[in-house]
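To close the chapter, one final illustration. This time we ask the reader to focus less on the individual chains and more on the assembly as a whole: which components sit near each other, and how the overall shape emerges from the parts.
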Amino acid sequence: MLYSEKVMDHFANPHNMGEIEDANAIGEVGNKKCGDIMKIYMKIEDDIIKDVKFKTFGCGAAIATSSMATDLVKGKTIKEALELTNKAVVEALEGLPPVKMHCSVLAEEAIKSTIADYYKRQGIDPEPIVGTSKSCGDDCPCDE
Amino acid sequence: MLYSEKVMDHFANPHNMGEIEDANAIGEVGNKKCGDIMKIYMKIEDDIIKDVKFKTFGCGAAIATSSMATDLVKGKTIKEALELTNKAVVEALEGLPPVKMHCSVLAEEAIKSTIADYYKRQGIDPEPIVGTSKSCGDDCPCDE
Amino acid sequence: MIYVDNAATTALKPEVLDKMMPYLTSQYGNPSSIYDLGRQAKAAIEQARASVASVLGANANEVYFTGSGSEADNWAIKGMAHAAKGKHIITSAIEHHAVLHCFEYLAKNGFDVTYLPVDSHGIVNPDDLKAAIKPETGLISIMAANNEIGTIQPISQLAKIAHEGKIPFHTDAVQAFGHIPFNVSDLGVDAASVSAHKLGGPKGVGVLYIKRGTRIGQFMHGGAQEYGRRASTENVAGIVGFGHAAALAADGMEEKIKKVSSLRDSFITQVLNEIPKCRLNGHSKQRLPGNVNISFDYIEGESLLLLLDMKGIAASSGSACTSGSLDPSHVLLALGLPHETAHGSLRVSFSENNTMQEVDKIVKELVPIVARLREMSPLTE
Amino acid sequence: MIYVDNAATTALKPEVLDKMMPYLTSQYGNPSSIYDLGRQAKAAIEQARASVASVLGANANEVYFTGSGSEADNWAIKGMAHAAKGKHIITSAIEHHAVLHCFEYLAKNGFDVTYLPVDSHGIVNPDDLKAAIKPETGLISIMAANNEIGTIQPISQLAKIAHEGKIPFHTDAVQAFGHIPFNVSDLGVDAASVSAHKLGGPKGVGVLYIKRGTRIGQFMHGGAQEYGRRASTENVAGIVGFGHAAALAADGMEEKIKKVSSLRDSFITQVLNEIPKCRLNGHSKQRLPGNVNISFDYIEGESLLLLLDMKGIAASSGSACTSGSLDPSHVLLALGLPHETAHGSLRVSFSENNTMQEVDKIVKELVPIVARLREMSPLTE
Ligand SMILES: Cc1ncc(COP(=O)(O)O)c(C=O)c1O
Ligand SMILES: Cc1ncc(COP(=O)(O)O)c(C=O)c1O
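The assembled structure is written out below.
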C-alpha cells in the first residue's frame, strides 16, 4: 500500500487542523468500529465558508483527505462546497490506494454533514439541499 | 539418494561381469517392468562354486549388488552360498539407500535361483534345499 | 533506521547468507538429480534438516521443509483435520490468520469449530480446552506464542489434555521457535509450524514438524520430494539458510533472551511512565522476550506508525499481514478491548540487534507523536 | 562439468542474483509493512509482477506469486476443480506429477477424471479432447510442453475447444515459459503455472496466472498477501529474481531458440548415427529447443547417468522428481514404449550456456558407455 507524496504531505502537515470556537456548523461522520472518525467545524457567513477546521481519528489517508477536503471548500460558497466529490479529493491528493478510497467518501460526507448541520441550526430541513447522507451509525460494515 | 563409496566402486568396476561358456548353472531373476534383471552363471564342481559371473540390466545398486553377491559366493561351497542373505550383501556394500534395498533381495534370490538350476539340471528337486524363491514373474508389483 | 518490527520479519543474518551463497551460485543442482551436483544439494538439505531437527528436539525424518510458515499451518490444519475421524476441531480466538482462516475454511466445509476464548492477558485456560473436547474432536491447534501481543501459551499442559482425549495437537510456533526454548519432545506436540524469516533466516521457507505416526493428508501433491510428502523442487539456498539460522538462534539463547527482555522491559516502563492513558496488552511475564504491545487511547495505529517512520523508526500495529485491512485486530478484541482501542495499538518487537540507546530514542520520539495525534483526535477527552 | 539437465533446474543467472542481493541484505522489509523499508519491498514485488506479466502477456493483477511451480499447479487444479459446477475434469496422460497427482487426488474425492492419450510422438489430439467433453466437465488442464520428451502441445487449439464448451482451461507452462513464446492472451488460456528455476531464476518461487474473472478457490489461507489470494510473507528476493529472470529470458528469445535448437539437433543426429538400436522420443519438430530424449535398447537409465556423471556430464533420465522411484516413466509408457525401454531413456536438456564442443564431448563419452552397459546386460541380443 503506497501513499502518494501529496497524501504524505497532507498527512505530515495537515491544513486546517483544530477546532473553531464559534463555529456555526459542526459535523461528525465515521464510527469507532471502522477506525475512522472525522469531525468538521465551519464558520459560515453569507453562504460562504469563511473558515473550516477538522479533527480526525484515523489512518494516514483519513487525515490527508480531511486536510485536502477542508482546503478545497475553504472560502467557497455552500453551493460550491456541496459539489465537492470524493473523486475530486482523491484527484487533488494524486490518488489513494484502493483499500483507502472509503476515506475520501468519508471526507465528502463530513463536508455535507457539516453543511446539513448549518441548515438544521437555522431550522431548515437540509435534506432537499444536501441530500441523504450515506454515512451510517455504529453498526455499519467497515467495507464500502 | 546417496550411494556409499563401496557401491560406487562396485558399480564402476564390477567384479565377475560376463558369461561362463560352460556354466552348469544359470539363474535369472527380476523383470522388465521393474527395471532390474539379474542373470547369474556358475561353474560348480564338488559342491564348490569354482566360478561365477553375472549380467545385469538395472540401476547402479543392481549392478553393485550383483558384483558384491558374486564376490561373496565365489569359491564357497553351495551350503555357504545358500547362507548368503541380502543383509550381508548390503553390509558388505556399506549400506544401500532405502529405495534400493530390493536390489539386494534380488541379488540373494539370483544366487539361490542359480543354485536351484544346478540341482534341477541333475534331476534333484531344489525346493527342499534352496526353498521357494520369492522371485516373481512379469506381473508382480515393483515395490517390495 | 531503528528496526523494531522483528516479529514481522527479521534481517537475514550475514553469516546465514554466507552459507546460502554457494547454493545461489555454483551449487545449483536439483537435489533429486542423481549426479554429483544434485547429490551435493541433497546432502546440504539433509544437513539443514538435521540442524532444524536438533533445535526442535525432533528426529530429522520428522522435519519437512515448506515454502512458508503459512504453508506449514495450511498443511497441518487441513491435512490433520481431513485425516481425523471426528468433524469437530478446536483452536483459539487469537491465532494468526494462517491458522484462523484455515479453520474458517474448514467450518464452511462441514467441520464444527470451537474457538477458545482467552483471558484479558491473552492466555488460553486449559480448563476451557478440557470443557470444549467432544467425542468427535479430531484436531486441536493452539499457537505457542502470539504474534501481536507476544503471549506464551501453556502448550505442554494443553497438549497433555489433548492426548488424554487421544486428539492430535498442533501448534503454530512461528513466533516461538528460535526465540524461546521450544522443544517438541518436551512439549509433547504432534505437529508444529515454524518459519525461517522470523529468526534471521530467509523469507519463503518454513518447516512443518510431524511426529512420526501422526495422521495427516498430503497438501502439496506432485514429485517425491520431502520423503514423498511435499512436492516441489526444493528451495535449496533457503533451506540451507534455515538450517544455519536455527543453529545460530539456539546458540546462547538464554543470554539473548536476557538481553532482549531487558530492552523490552525498559521500553514498557518508560512508555507507561511518560505517556498517560495507555496500557500494555498481553501478559506481563508470559510473553516473548522481544514483544511490546501498547494501546494509546484516542489514536489510531497507522498514523502512529507513519509518524514514527518519518523519524526513522520501523514498528508495527499488530500483524503485518493485515496492514491495509480496515478491521481492528481480532487479537485485541479477544482481550476485551473496545474497537477504537483495538485500532490504536503499537507493536514494537526487539531483536538482539537492538540497543538500549534505540529504546530511549524511540520513547523520546513517541511522546510528542502521541501528543500530536491526540490533539488531532475528536475522541480525546 | 558439462551441465545438460536444464529441464531439471537451471543455474541462477549471475545478473539475476545481483538484483536479488539487496533483498538478501539491507532491504529485508516485510512487504506488508507500512514503513519505508516495507514499502520498498512491496514496490520491488510489484515491479517483478509487472515484468513477469509483460512476458506472459497478462495484466499485472492477474499474476500471483507462489512458492513453486508445483504450488501453482496444486492451486490451479484443486482451486478450479472445486470452484467448478461439474464434477468431470480432463487432463492428459503425460502431465508432470504436480498435475497428475492432483488429478488422482481429486479422483479419490468424488471427481470423474479423463486422461487423454497422446500419439506416439506425445501429442494430444484436439479431437480426443472434443470427444471427452461432457456437459458436467468443469476443468481442462493440459501442459504446454512436456518435461521429459519436450513435446509442445497445440494449446491455443485445445483452449479454444475448452471455451466452446464454456470450460476453463489451465496449462502447466513450467517448461515452456521463458523457452518458447508463451503468451496467455494469444493462447487464450484461463490459468497457467510457471516456475522461476527453470529459466535462470531462483528455486522456490512460481507464478500462477489467473485470468480476471476465472473462478478459483483459495489454496493457501492466511494473510492478505497477493491481493488477498495467496497467504505467506513474500519471498521478496525470490520474487525479484523471478521478475528479472523472466525479462532476461524474453530478451532475444528467438536468437536463443536458434542457438539451443542447433545444439539439440546436432546431438540427436550424432547419437542416432553413431549408436545402433536407439530412438528419439517425442516429436521431431514440435519440441522444446533444448530437449533431447533418447531410448537405448537393453540398458537402464540410472546406470547410464551414473557413468556419464563419472565423466563429468550431468544429464537425466526423465523427470528429476521421480528419480529414486522404481517406476518407469509414465510419459514414455504413454507413447507406447515397452517397460524396459521406458526405464532406459536419457534426457539431455541444453541451455544457451552450452556449446557445440560440449555436444561433441557428450557424444564421444556416450558411445562407449552405452556399449559397455549393453555388454553387461542380459537383454542384449
Ligand atoms: C512441467 C513441470 N511442471 C511442474 C514442475 C514443478 O515445478 P517446481 O519444481 O517449481 O515445483 C516441473 C518441474 O519440476 C515441471 O517440469
Ligand atoms: C504466528 C504466525 N504464524 C504464521 C505466520 C506465517 O508465516 P509466513 O509469513 O512465513 O507464512 C506468521 C508470520 O507471518 C506468524 O507470526
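The longest helix of chain B spans residues 101-121. Residues C 232-233; D 68-70, 73, 96, 98, 143, 147, 172, 174-175, 195, 197, 206, 321 surround pyridoxal-5'-phosphate (ligand 1) (CB under 6 Å). With these observations in hand, you are ready for the problems at the end of the chapter.
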